[in-house]
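TL;DR need structure tokens for one chain.
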Amino acid sequence: MSIQNNLLEIKASLPSNVTLVAVSKTWPVDDLMEAYNAGQRFFGENKVQEMTQKWEQMPKDTEWHMIGHLQTNKVKYIAPYVSLIHSVDSLKLLTEINRQGQRYRKIINCLLQVHIAEEDTKFGLDENELYALLASEEFNAMENINVTGLMGMATFTEDMQQVKREFMHLKSIFEEVRQQPQTLNLKPKTLSMGMSGDYRLAIECGSTMVRIGSSIFGTR
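>> reply
TL;DR here they are.
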């Protein structure tokens, strides 16, 4: 199967309200271009340097999603062009994104990453940290970010019941955040959860954005 065929097959299976982010980390630009030529515009990368190199080479209507853990000192490199940062896991990081947004006179879209997995290795805010961040004066004063939703990763396990519990938990948090008054910098519409191995289940649980890599590009 070619990248194009894989992509079209997955796209045909997705509901119309679900956005597909093609996870292109470690794959060369030629492979990304095959996906681009098949109509894909949203690409997800987890390393700043690699994403910036690809941004320089790819057509300018490509939308770049930062899906990996992001260090505050790296924000400045992606601020000029990034479409969405999925992995915002602290007020400190959000403050730096807002600062770079001011510098480039743009509003940078972000998702807040919530820790839902039982593994300690995953990054993310817990529920209390999430609500404290949204209620903080610092957050409410930020004019150059827009929190468009939440992102989460389930535990890496064969136990799909556990994965489902974690996805449903994130969905309930998302609905609670949506009940909050929408402000200029909080317009939660996107729930990013689900990858190659569990995206169908994630969609059943309410995901509106899936991050798929190996099912499109293959495995190394």
